[in-house]
Each structure stands twice: as structure tokens, then as C-alpha cells.
Write a structure and sequence with these properties.
The protein has 858 residues and is an alpha+beta fold. It folds into 4 domains: 201 residues, PAS domain (Beta-Lactamase), CATH 3.30.450; 144 residues, Alpha-D-Glucose-1,6-Bisphosphate, Chain A, domain 3 (3-Layer(aba) Sandwich); 205 residues, 3-Layer(aba) Sandwich (Alpha-D-Glucose-1,6-Bisphosphate, Chain A, domain 3), CATH 3.40.120; 85 residues, TATA-Binding Protein. Strands 9, 10, 11, 12, 13, 14 and 15 form a 7-stranded mixed sheet that branches. Strands 25, 26, 27, 28, 29 and 30 form a 6-stranded antiparallel sheet that branches. The protein is globular, with a radius of gyration of 41 Å. The termini are far apart. Keywords: Isomerase, Magnesium, Membrane, Metal-binding, Phosphoprotein, Transmembrane, Transmembrane helix.
């Protein structure tokens, strides 16, 4: 019934049952790889969603609250400033002084009613006569004063003290009183006090004027006595309940505080919806898992296919191409084993050769492999050469072809190089052909060109114009003018594309091109792409027209028509023999200034000094001339007129970050919340001042093109670089214009009736350096800055690598960056005192020595 299992015959093999996979190594490897990638990714998303996002939101709301508080406090200050000026003016009028000679209460009341008409919104206005001892007779009727607060205010004012407004609660409403002394200039026998009282609902209206939806603004009056402190809310507007985000600002000599609490709506507006980041995180994780699954499936299929290919082609000759290089040793060994010649059989010719028997052990299992260790395998591979495919040839090294286009002239935001060697006619024609082709692709039929006063500029402009016309562009040549006039032309003429031939402040032998394409700065990647286009020779062809047009008169008329000089100023102009000398004196003269020209004859040899305003040694002559002439200010321009340097009446150089403080104060006061942009070389006090004025400070990268891009992106009303580039978005077009900036400064000075130095008196006074240049090669400068950022030890400072390496300390800051216009590193330092300045400079010197082996003493 049952069949007995037959033992295997010696020399025959059983079915292979003892060969099996011990474990799926690939499966384990895949799971480990998944864990390695997923766990950090999950931690990153958790950090971004739960920690960083919350912290960023909190910082944004806090900063927003501080900005609102500053804006509201500015409004309150302006309200009381106007009221105080009106009270002082009223106290000095003959009508107020006449009360000193009147003893009739009815007559005094009539005068009070008559003067009250000049104080709309006031609850009351009282004229209180003082006796010969300087006090009022308060025993009988208290002179109509409401409480001891007004009595105290009267007494202090009568003594000549500069009193501040004080609030008090009277008949269930809050009132605020101000007082001013009325003195008879002809005699000291008698005087009086003019006291005005307003209802604090007016202060609530001032707070509400900025908008009540953003949150709740409250004006608090503080009362301190010993350790006891009380805060009374004397005016308020809006609503808000998130007290931990409140911001406060001191007012009225610290007696008042303005508190702003953001509303739920404002907080919600700056609170990102977490569902969207969560969905993005889920999508990213899902995509990663799917990608890994696809990789696993694909690799298994590929591996199976490769093994099948190895097995089926093992006995064949010819090339064996594998996609998995790791299988090559196995494939070679299998092919050698199967293709090795076998010994002749003793059977008769033609008899079939029995297949080789697999070696077996006594128990019938397979014997050990042919090779017992890897050294035997290596020896076999070395001694047997049975491969049928040739060894792969090494790929040749790529050959770099010199296309004759020097890469270093294509800089970060313009093109600059040696005029004779690197910007010869052939190179300029290639650049013009590429720019003309690009302009046509962007719908710009006309291109405006101009040049400065350098000796090589007319030649370069001529070659450029011919190349542009050969691409089919109409060329509008506006002649030799400052760069800002070309920028103005792209707004005033029919074309929004312009090319300025200028070397700016570079050495005499250099020249370059500044480009505006379709109303936008042409910089960064666009300039590098331009070089590639030149190399490829991808140019359009056509026949454009060459036109000439004079636009200087329109430029001057536009500026003069928008400005008013209240008082004529005496201005010394140093153009450094640059092209600004052909325009700036006429502009300031027509504006109403008395102009003293200095080095204003255009001469490309620059015989008096180099037109680089960032080098303060070039301003020595101007400083001396301003003092000698008794001028109000001195102004200097660089070679193409887009940068400004200023000297005060005392012969002191006023650096650009100080000028930006003046301009910011002027512009932001009229435009609360306006953006103000400045570069990393400017004083950190700009951040505090712009915020105090009610604006938004933005620190940005150095470079006129970068600044213009940021101006367009943010809609900022003011921007500036420490090097002297100043950008006005208010009443102007947002490009850098040294001449226009000089006019705006003259307008502010003339309106203040003080002079430049008093305008600067309220700004922080620090110890700082001018821009320091350290010559290095173009090839090394960026590597040095990168090494400093990665390896430098600037503890305990905070490093900012937005542009170069800027390190902020508690008492100052230092900066080292690579110049984008020449072979140099530029540095600047600022501190609260000279000891801090030296400490910061020494640390930068030490770190530069440590990471780049550069010995220097800043």
C-alpha cells in the first residue's frame, strides 16, 4: 500500500532544498533607509510647525505692537506739540498781555471767551492774574481752578517752570490742562498764567485716527509715591484682549505711557493656518514613502532582470552589458566557469559527453563551493582572461575652450573692466548685440544710451549704439550726462530700457556699463546669462535708427518744479571733474541756491582728485572750501553723479547713514508705516530711529541694483547705501540720484531755519570708521569672506551673512565684505565708545589673520 522512499543513488543530486534566503537584507536596508530619512524629516516638520512657527508669529506680533505703539505715541506728541505752540503764541499776544492791566473779572472773562475761539475743542481757557509776589489770590474763589492739580500747575508755571500737561478726573470725565506764563515785557511787576483745558475724548480721537481694528490703544497717567505705583487710563480707542503681546511707550517725561494691545483680528491675520503646513508635510512624507517604494520595486525588478541576463548569456560570447555594476564579478566568474574547456571523454567519437556531476558529500548534500575563500577568487580573476567584452575606457577630461570673453568683467550689478584691453570695440559690439537681442525679446523697440566724461566713453558709446541698431533696435542717444539723467530718461521717454557707459568711481583706465532693462535693474544672474549669450552668439539682426535727444532741461525742470527752497543756501559743489559738473551747478542754481562750483569742468583725466566720494581723502579740498566760503553745506558727486557726499558748514564730513536719518525723519513723518531700506554698512541706530518715527526699517545687501530691486519689491519710499547711493520713492522714481538727493537735503535745511549741524544734534553720536578698503584679488575676495563666515570666531557677537560677514555686539558692530566693483575687501566698524571700537576692529583683524593669513590692522 505504501511505497518505500528510494534513496538517492550515489553521484546524482537531489532537488536543491537546502539553498534558501536566510533573511531579506534588501528589505532591512530599505526599512533602515526609510527610518533614517523619515525621522529627521518628521523632527524638522515638528520643529517648524510647533516651535519655530509659533516663535516667528510671536515676534511678528510683538514687533507689530511696538510699531503701532510708536505710531500712536507720535500722534499724541504731535497733538500736544501743536497745542503747546498755539498756547505759547496766544500767551504772547497783546490780547493776553492786556489782562495784566485789568482788574475787572467781567472784562477778563470777555477776553477769555474771545481767545477761546482760537482753541477749537478746548473745554475752557482761563487767564489768571498773579500778584506782585508772583502768586494768584486763590483764597476766596480759587480763580475757577478745578482741583489741587490745576493749582499746582498754576504755581509751577508762575515760577517760570516748563510744565507738562496733566490729566485729572472731574465730574466723571477725564480732562487735561496745559499752562503758559503771560509776562509783560515792559515791567516785571505783574504777570499772568494762560491755562487751557481739553476733554480727553480728543486724545481718544487721536488714537482712533490710526484705526481701531488693529487693537486697543490706551493712554495711561502714572502716579508714583515710594513703592506705590498706580496707572490711570486717561484715554483709549479700539479693542484688544491679548495682554501678553502689549507694547508700551513712555510719553510726557515718563509721566504718561501709551499702551497698545493687538486685536484678535490682527493676531489672526499674522497667525498662519497650521492646516496648510500640515498638509504640505503630509504630502512631502507621502511623496518620500512612495518614492522609496518605487525605488524598492524598481531595484528588485532590475536585479531579477540582471540575474536572468547573466544566467542566459553565461555560455554565450560577446559583450555583456549590465546595469548593476556590483554583479559584474559574479557574471565574469560564471562565464569563465561555464566556458572553460572540459577534458575529452573516453567514449567513442560522437558520443554525448555526460554533464559534469556536482560534487556531493556522503550524505548526498551539495559539497562546498569550488573556491574556499576570496583570495582564491581574486587569483582566479587575475590569472584567467576569458572576458568577451573590452574593459571600459576612462572618459576624457573636459576641455575648457577660451571664448575670449573675460568672465571677471561681468560683475554682480554691472559690467566693468579695462577700457582698452577688455572693453575694446569688438567686445562692446558683442555686448551690445546681446543686449539688443534681449531687449527685442522683451518688447523694447527703443534703447536709450548715454555716457560719462571718461576719455574712452564716447568710443564705447558709439560702438554700443551701432551694435544695438544692428539688432533692429532704435537707439536714442542722450549724450554725455550723469547716470541719474539716463535713469530719468527711462521714465520720461518712450523706452524703459537704457544703457549707461560709465566707469563710475573706478580708476581712470577702466570703464563699464550700467543697464536698465524694461524698467528693472539688470544684475546678478541676468548679467551672467548675458555673458553666456555672448559666448553662444545668439543675436538678432535688423536695421534700427540712430536718434539724438537732449533731456537735461526736462530733468532739471521736473526737479525744480517739485521743490521749494524757503531760504537761499550757499552750496559748494565738488564734481571731481566728473560728468555731474555739467548738470549739478545749473540744477541747484535754478533751485534758488548760491552755488560755488569746484572742479566742475568735465575732464576724464581727473586732474584734481579721483571722483570717488567713498574715499574721504578726496573730500579734503571741499571741507576747506566750505569753511573758507562760509557756505551752508558742501556736496560732492562721484564720476557719474549717482552718489552723494555731504560736508557741513563746519567742514565735517556727514556720512550717508546720518543723512538717511534726516531723510527718514522727514519722509516717515508724512508717511507713517513707510519702508526704509539701508545696506549692511549703515549704522544700527537707523533701525531704532526709523521704528521710532513710525516706519519699517529693512537691512539689505550692498549694491545699487540690489537696492533698486528691493525698492521695487517693497514699495519703499526711501533707501540708501553707506557709499552714497540714495534712493527716493517719495516724489521721485526710486533710483539712486546724488544730485536729486542734494536738492532734497537743501529743501529740508532751508525749511528748518537751523542749518545742517543742529538737525543732526538729536541723533545718536557714535565712534565709527569710514569705509575701509583692503586690496585683494578678484579671484580671492569671495573665498576669504566665505572662510571668515564659516571659520571665524566672533564670540560673543551675532553673525549676519546677508552680505559678507556683519557681526553685531551689545555695544557696536563690524563688517567685512567683498567689493562687487573692484578687487578689494571693504570693512566698516561702529561702537558706542573708542574702547569698544578698537576691540571690534582687533577681533576682525585677528580672525582675518587666522582664516586667511592676511596681516592687517583696521
Amino acid at each position: 500500500m505504501f511505497k518505500k522512499k528510494q534513496d538517492a543513488q550515489p553521484g546524482t543530486a537531489e532537488p536543491i532544498q537546502d539553498i534558501a534566503a536566510h533573511s531579506d537584507v534588501f528589505q532591512k536596508t530599505w526599512l533602515v533607509a526609510m527610518a533614517v530619512m523619515l525621522i529627521p524629516l518628521l523632527l524638522v516638520f515638528a520643529y517648524l510647525l510647533l516651535i519655530r512657527e509659533s516663535a516667528v508669529q510671536s515676534q511678528q506680533i510683538t514687533l507689530l505692537s511696538e510699531t503701532h505703539a510708536e505710531q500712536q505715541s507720535a500722534g499724541i506728541r504731535q497733538f500736544f506739540s501743536r497745542l503747546d505752540k498755539r498756547l505759547k503764541t496766544a500767551a504772547a499776544t497783546p490780547l493776553a498781555v492786556s489782562v495784566l492791566d485789568i482788574n475787572e473779572p467781567a472784562a477778563i472773562t470777555a477776553i477769555e471767551q474771545q481767545m477761546l475761539a482760537y482753541f477749537p475743542g478746548a473745554v475752557s481757557l482761563r487767564l489768571i492774574r498773579l500778584d506782585a509776589m508772583g502768586t494768584a489770590g486763590l483764597a476766596d474763589d480759587n480763580q475757577g481752578l478745578r482741583n489741587h492739580i490745576e493749582v499746582d500747575l498754576l504755581r509751577r508755571t508762575a515760577k517760570g517752570e516748563d510744565t507738562a500737561p496733566e490729566s485729572y478726573k472731574f465730574e466723571e470725565r477725564w480732562l487735561t490742562s496745559l499752562a503758559e506764563q503771560v509776562v509783560n515785557s515792559g515791567t516785571q511787576d505783574a504777570s499772568a498764567v494762560l491755562m487751557a483745558t481739553i476733554d480727553n475724548t480728543l486724545l481718544s480721537e487721536v488714537l482712533a485716527a490710526a484705526g481701531v481694528d488693529a487693537g486697543r490703544s490706551a493712554l495711561l497717567q502714572l502716579y508714583r509715591q515710594g513703592n506705590y505705583e498706580r496707572a490711570d487710563e486717561i484715554a483709549a480707542a479700539g479693542s484688544g484682549k491679548i495682554t501678553d503681546k502689549s507694547a508700551t511707550v513712555d510719553l510726557n517725561d515718563g509721566l504718561w505711557q501709551l499702551s497698545f494691545t493687538p486685536s484678535k483680528a490682527l493676531v489672526a491675520a499674522y497667525t498662519p493656518a497650521t492646516i496648510i503646513p500640515a498638509i504640505m508635510a503630509a504630502i512631502a512624507l507621502l511623496a518620500l514613502v512612495c518614492g522609496m517604494l518605487l525605488l524598492r520595486l524598481h531595484y528588485r525588478k532590475a536585479l531579477t532582470k540582471e540575474v536572468e541576463l547573466i544566467v542566459t548569456s553565461a555560455r554565450k560570447k560577446g559583450a555583456l552589458m549590465l546595469s548593476v555594476p556590483e554583479l559584474l564579478p559574479i557574471a565574469k566568474m560564471l562565464r569563465r566557469s561555464l566556458q572553460r574547456p572540459t577534458s575529452q571523454s573516453t567514449n567513442s567519437p560522437g558520443a554525448a559527453t555526460p554533464p559534469p556531476k556536482e560534487p556531493t558529500l556522503a550524505d548526498g548534500h551539495l559539497a562546498a563551493p569550488m573556491f574556499q575563500n576570496t583570495s582564491m577568487i581574486d587569483e582566479e580573476l587575475e590569472t584567467l582572461d576569458l572576458d568577451t567584452e573590452p574593459a571600459p575606457e576612462p572618459e576624457p577630461e573636459p576641455v575648457l575652450v577660451d571664448d575670449g570673453i573675460p568672465s571677471h568683467i561681468f560683475r554682480a550689478y554691472d559690467i566693468r573692466g579695462n577700457a582698452d584691453e577688455e572693453l575694446d570695440d569688438e567686445m562692446v559690439e558683442k555686448i551690445g548685440s546681446a543686449l539688443g537681442s534681449l531687449a527685442g525679446e522683451q518688447g523694447q523697440q527703443s534703447v536709450i544710451i548715454a555716457c560719462d566724461g571718461r576719455l574712452s566713453s564716447p568710443r564705447i558709446k558709439s560702438a554700443l549704439g551701432k551694435a544695438l541698431a544692428a539688432t533692429g533696435r532704435d537707439v536714442i542717444d542722450i549724450g554725455a550726462v550723469p547716470t541719474p539723467v539716463l535713469y530719468y530718461a527711462t521714465h520720461a521717454l518712450e523706452s524703459r530700457t537704457g544703457i549707461m557707459v560709465t566707469g563710475s568711481h573706478n580708476p581712470i583706465e577702466d570703464n563699464g556699463l550700467k543697464i536698465v532693462m524694461d524698467g528693472k535693474p539688470f544684475a546678478g544672474e541676468k548679467i551672467q546669462a548675458l555673458r553666456e549669450r555672448i559666448s553662444s552668439g545668439d543675436f538678432s539682426t535688423g536695421k534700427g535708427r540712430l536718434l539724438k535727444q537732449d533731456i537735461v532741461a526736462d530733468y532739471i525742470d521736473t526737479i525744480v518744479g517739485d521743490m521749494a527752497i524757503a531760504v537761499s543756501l550757499k552750496v559748494v559743489i565738488d564734481a571731481g571733474n566728473g560728468i555731474a559738473g555739467a548738470v549739478a551747478p545749473q540744477l541747484l542754481t535754478e533751485l534758488g541756491c548760491e552755488v560755488v562750483p569746484m572742479y566742475c569742468e568735465v575732464d576724464g583725466n581727473f586732474p584734481n582728485h579721483h571722483p570717488d566720494t567713498s574715499d574721504e581723502s578726496n573730500l579734503r579740498d571741499l571741507c576747506q572750501r566750505v569753511v573758507a566760503e562760509g557756505a551752508d553745506i558742501g556736496v560732492a558727486f562721484d564720476g557719474d553723479g549717482d552718489r552723494l557726499a555731504v560736508v557741513s558748514a563746519e567742514g565735517e564730513i556727514i556720512r550717508t547713514d546720518k543723512l538717511l536719518m534726516i531723510f527718514a525723519q522727514d519722509i516717515v513723518s508724512r508717511n507713517p508705516g513707510a519702508d526704509v531700506i539701508f545696506d549692511v554698512k549703515c549704522s544700527r541706530h537707523l533701525i531704532q530711529l526709523v521704528s521710532r518715527y513710525g516706519g519699517r526699517p529693512i537691512l539689505w545687501k550692498t549694491g545699487h541694483a540690489f537696492m533698486k530691486e528691493k525698492m521695487q519689491e517693497t514699495g519703499a519710499l526711501l533707501g540708501g547705501e553707506f557709499s552714497g547711493h540714495i534712493f527716493f520713492g517719495e516724489r521721485w522714481f526710486g533710483f539712486d540720484d546724488g544730485m536729486y538727493s542734494a536738492c532734497r537735503l537743501a529743501e529740508i535745511i532751508s525749511a528748518s531755519d537751523q542749518g545742517l549741524t543742529p538737525l543732526l544734534a538729536d541723533f545718536p553720536n557714535t565712534q565709527n570708521t569710514p569705509e575701509i578698503k583692503l586690496p585683494v584679488s578678484d579671484a580671492d575676495k569671495f573665498n576669504i569672506v566665505s572662510a571668515l563666515a564659516e571659520q571665524g570666531n566672533f564670540s560673543p557677537g551675532k553673525i549676519n551673512t546677508l552680505d559678507g560677514v556683519r557681526v553685531d555686539y551689545s555695544d557696536g558692530w563690524g563688517l567685512l565684505r567683498a567689493s562687487n566693483t573692484g578687487p578689494a575687501l571693504t570693512a566698516r566698524f561702529e561702537a558706542e565708545d573708542i574702547e569698544g571700537l578698537e576691540r571690534i576692529k582687533n577681533q576682525f583683524s585677528e580672525q582675518l589673520k587666522a582664516v586667511a593669513n592676511i596681516e592687517t590692522k583696521f
